[in-house]
Amino acid sequence: MMLSHTGNTGDDYSSLAQTQGYSSPDFSLAVSLHRERNKLTKMVKKKSDVYSVEIYGTKDLEKTETGDKDEKYKDLKGNKKKKKTEDLKKELDLDDHQLSPSDLEEKYGTNISKGLSSARAAEILARDGPNALTPPKSTPEIVKFLKQMVGGFSILLWIGAVCSWVSFGIQFAQGAESPFDNLYLGVVLALVVILTGIFAYYQEAKSTNIMASFSKMIPQQALVIRDAEKKELPADKLVVGDIVEIKGGDRIPADIRLISAQGCKVDNSSLTGESEPQSRSCDFTHENPLETKNIAFYSTTCVEGTATGIVINTGDRTIIGRIASLASRVGNEKTPIAIEIEHFVYLVAGVAVSIGVLFFIISISLRYKILDSIIFLIGIIVANVPEGLLATVTVSLSLTAKRMAKKNCLVKNLEAVETLGSTSIICSDKTGTLTQNRMTVAHLWFDNQIYSADTSEDQITQPFDQSSPSWTALSKIVTLCNRAEFAPGQENHPIMKRVVVGDASETALLKFAEVILGDVMNIRARNKKVAEIPFNSTNKFQLSIHETEDPNDKRFLLVMKGAPERILERCSTIMINGKEEPLDSEKAEAFQTAYMELGGMGERVLGFCHLYLPENEFPDTYPFDTDSMNFPTSNLCFVGLLSMIDPPRSTVPDAVSKCRSAGIKVIMVTGDHPITAKAIAKSVGIISATSETVEDIAKRLNIPVEQVNRRQLSDGSSREASAAVVNGMELKDMSLQQLDEILCNHSEIVFARTSPQQKLIIVEGCQRQGAVVAVTGDGVNDSPALKKADIGIAMGIAGSDAAKNAADMVLLDDNFASIVTGVEEGRLIFDNLKKTIAYTLTKNIAELCPFLIYIIASVPLPIGTITILFIDLGTDIIPSVALAYEKAESDIMNRRPRNKRKDRLVNEQLAVYSYLHIGIMQSIGAFVTYFTVYAEQGFLPSTLLGVRVKWEDNNINDFEDSYGQEWTKYQRLYLQWTGYTAFFVSITIQQVADLIIRKTRRNSIFQQGLFRNKVIWVGIFSQIGIALILTYGLGHVTALNFTPLRFQYWFVAVPFAILIWVYDEVRKLFIRRYPGSWWDKNMYY
Length: 1085
Fold this sequence. Notes:
The protein is of the alpha+beta class. It contains 39 helices and 30 strands. The strands form six sheets. Strands 12, 13, 16, 17, 18, 19, 20, 21 and 22 form a nine-stranded mixed β-sheet that branches.
């Protein structure tokens, strides 16, 4: 349904194409909406705060907004780039569409018949620059690569590597024992960063160069009148004031004000998202330059007809240029997971430096040399660095990205995997995402009754009653009065998947007829067409005359379809149950009621009528002339109505319902008509069945809209209007505070008739509420919002290159339901990363304590740096990644999105439980194994205390143990390596228990199942396998500091592993038993 924009009557069918194609009944709903729009238009004209673009001259953009704003919305003073971005967000203000041709000639100093002179064109070209989009400054690939090397975890590892090299330098200068351990450690840490960086860079190597895809849309040549001659010029040489000719198939070379047009239609889908071709004429039909018919926009396509126009904007000043500039200026938001990793890095660094400095002070007070104390400090800091975590997180995100790709979500930026899980608002486009992106017959009206048609994706039959003779007559008109045809060679394809040559509405009618009647092309061949008047915006109908296939009936059949009110006014009878009856006021009222009902559902309605021409007046040799119309076009017989809509995808209502239960707000943002948008929003559940907008309430209570309470009450208990449908024209006049109020006070929102700039403003509004915003889009017009969103989701099938490049994720099947699958995966990876980090941090204490005991108790070093490296980058890597495969503990889609300010990846509870509970247990278990090994070799624990200096003295070769046995330097060193190996094996055994307990955070292991995640077992066997290889296979390689270990030492730590498991099961039991208690708040991470 749509309304006349010229203020004459409500039956302006020409506006059908203009507003997504809805014919407009002259009934109360339309009239009230029409008045509302006129009122808005007058308000806009009256107000001077419209934002304008200089059409020519050296100024680029001009901001004319006035008035005070809340501090929250103020720009940074002096920030020119931000100011220019804000200017680009403003709506375009042109008056060229309102000017007469002579005024245009005067304004641009041109002549419509002769064009500009070459000299004048050269001047303007020098002033304005070429008609091309300015490419933004692109980030060199080397900079992108280096960013991977120093971001997040990487910086922590680099600090560790540098500290190791400093430590090596000090020890080497002192001639200390095995200083090369620290050199190797530094090299390995650097290698980990470089290799992980290369992997991450490779994963994200697809360029996000938005402008490259915009430039692909630029037309190469243009036909211009200059110096009174027609010339082919490169499109980038066009200037304002040039007279340009365009024809079907051409890309529009600049923003053009049309001065003549013949049957011209343009495809604006790349700009507005409207799939229906829009008719163009030289008439001023709307105040809004984006809505008027006499402007054609740069980079859109002329699909049919011809036109001539004056160039009014070139390059960056065109509509598409403004969008391109806006998209390239909008900064990418930092992903939630990047913020979490940064927070984690600060936390780990803080803990490491604090403990390091504390023990530096202790070691100084224990009379250690300054250089030795510095080495201790560095050792403690390095021991705290989780070397393997960078690789683990990158691999886990990659695995999830791969899993999502199988479910039709292609992730371009690895960190975006988790962002989708944090999403609290989805701003979804309508066409193609929520809907099937094809017009389909939804309802029929004949015999004074409305019938519903099947609108599913794969129609095989239609369920309505087809026995009535009226249906037979209607189906004949639908079949014959239609110029659409199936492309050849598709007989074996399903009807709904066949390619059709023809516009969207006629395609819908053709497929509808083919499903019910069978071979439509054959029916047409049997009813030969003898004359035709195609649809045009003046007549607002399409007419054709046919011979009939009935050999006994020699009469010609005239069939007509078009705007229902125009068809009805040409009829004097109406068909009821196959019989013609006079069209009296009662039947006209029934028509109006049906038309109002179908139009109110946001459907595009067409009327159908016919007339059998008398044989005596129109014999078979009669010369039909469509110019003079020598045949009747009035007193016809009205047969029925058909209404069409782009129907919702069958999977969308369920997906929207899942979003609701997951606490995600779905907002529809579309360029389509408000009535259609609202109808689709209701049908998919974005606006629920019981919700009302202020307009609905005003209509129900029969009061003015102003008297309705628009707001939700502060306690959220009762509210009058929970839903809101906001028109782009209203949005244009809103302050940011008013927009924020709408976003806060309504749980169900539809924004209709929005421009690209408004879509961006809506996204920013949602982000001001603290929401993590996902945006879907397919057109060039969506690219600024896609880039600004926390996660931009482009359509893989219908999406433009610009949209795909601006987005973080591409939906391969263009289906909204795939987003919900992605949300589930994103939430799961956040939970699993939490488990992975908890698992990794636990052993940090067991790796740190040996250095602390070494300093304080002055015992032989329990574990070496190389050995620690084999834990972090050897035994622990596969188990850490295995946790990424863990299934969800409960229905994660029934909880609210995480609050990015409160629900941290690494919170206090996780750190305390990992470090001080499980970590301390692991350390005790490892030290028991360490002291057992030394005791069995003759060194009781009491003997080991305070022996560090003598133990490490290279000149002492008669060191006595507890039993008086003498040990050489090499024997002591070999025993020390055995201690390293025992400590390593002990941590490995306890990490198996740690891995099993990390499978769940709340549920018992027995509830989750030990064998649901098979990869965990691969991790466990890999841990033990690597430990066996290092101990027995490489135990004789002295550089690695491992020795073959007696088999019984493997079992010393087993009781501690069992203790860890039992302790954690008790923790989870109390959390489940006493929800909300102190225990739950402090022990659940």
